[in-house]
Design a protein that fits this description.
CATH topology of the largest domain: Rossmann fold
Bound molecules: adenosine-5'-triphosphate
Strand content: 15-25%
CATH superfamily of the largest domain: P-loop containing nucleotide triphosphate hydrolases
CATH architecture of the largest domain: 3-Layer(aba) Sandwich
Distance between the termini: 18 Å
Largest sheet: 6 strands, mixed
Shape: globular
Length: 256
Amino acid sequence: MTAVLSLEHVDVDLGRRPVLRDVDLHVEDRQLVGLVGPNGAGKTTLLRAVLGLVRTRQGRIMVADRPVRPGRSPIGYVPQRHAFTWDFPVSVQDAVMTGLARRIGLFRRPGVEHWRAVGDALERVRMTDLRRRPVAELSGGQRQRVLVARALVLRPRVLLLDEPFTGLDMPTQEVLGELFTALARENAVVMATHDLASAVHTCDRLALLNRTVVAFGRPGDLRDRRVWMEAFGVSERSPLLASIGIDGGVPAERGA
Ligand SMILES: Nc1ncnc2c1ncn2[C@@H]1O[C@H](COP(=O)(O)OP(=O)(O)OP(=O)(O)O)[C@@H](O)[C@H]1O
């Protein structure tokens, strides 16, 4: 199968400092890929490079067989929840409609087809019943769903999620993980996360990033503790290894 998102030999510098080096990553349709690595590994920079928001020094990024173009490639981006203003007096459906603002254009009102796209997106994240509720009244998990719906209104081929589990309790993480699994039946999904247990449990593939892709594979195949130690810069006594079942156990996972 061909990749819907591919990065080949990608280098990115920020402020003249090397941040990403020789990154290779290939994501197929209907794959849920977890992008994991320590603080400063370059996860956000990689997502921003895929969005065309930072310049690559060299290498190639292709989305749906075309070089990435900022704002034009079929990519849905779900920012971290704190990056969105939640105390603004708008309803769930209006917040989701902002995902179409660029397409609708300045000073034009949304048409029937735009409201249909909003309705479809809300249905996919199971928020139809709450569509008229002010966003200020939503829980963290519901807010995450609104942001996902806002990305889905553009009907992207690739969905990028930036730290979707941060600050959410385990039951909410589990329900969201199921949602992302369902979305990955129709889209390629790339999720940057610090939540290793959820990533191992939810994702089809993991990319271990530390300035470059240290390892890529099914969670169940990434059992060599040395690659985790190298990617995260931890010792073999680190609780990180135990938390993902590498320490003697076998990680539970989806789709092994
Ligand atoms: N605008 C910038 N100018 C220079 N360096 C930057 C800039 N933005 C980020 N960096 C550096 O690039 C590196 C990668 O940062 P990035 O935010 O991509 O990592 P991350 O894996 O997302 O980290 P975290 O998990 O902490 O969010 C860090 O060393 C950071 O200090």
